[in-house]
Amino acid sequence: MTKCPHCRHSYRYKELLPFSWRSRIGVVCSNCNQTSYLSAKFKKQSTIIAVITPILIFSLNVFEVPIQLMFVILLVFLCALIFAQPFWVRLSKEEEPLW
Ligand SMILES: [Zn+2]
Q1: How far is the CA of 12 from the centre of ligand 1 (A)?
Q2: Domain extent at residue 44
């Protein structure tokens, strides 16, 4: 699991899960009370995934997948991304610019 960049304390899953919807605020470490932010590398990886999503939608449309099935596939894809994010998130001490 991801560690605090300030004190190397291992975050628990439920501490990292809010990064999925409040990444700009940061997460306060329960051990050292310092705020950690998403690393620039992780933000770039997230951007790539955001680009893949419309490609996935287009691909499903090309193969004439029914809209109900397409909705279910996208919902599962989105849930998998949100709930898997704490396992691959990388943090930094300061908010790093994307470029
Ligand atoms: Zn810490």
Answers
A1: 12
A2: 13-92
Q: How far apart are CA 73 and CA 68, in angstroms?
A: 9
Angle at CA of residue 71, ends 66 and 72, nearest 5°? 100
pLDDT digits (tens, 9 = 90+) for 45-81: 888 988 888 898 888 889 888 989 888 988 998 888 8
CA of 67 to the centre of ligand 1 (A): 45
Q: If you measure from the C-alpha of residue 28 to the centroid of ligand 1, how many angstroms do you get, rounded to a whole number?
A: 8
Asked if residue 1 belongs to a domain, the reply is no
> Hey, what are 60's tokens?
């499903």
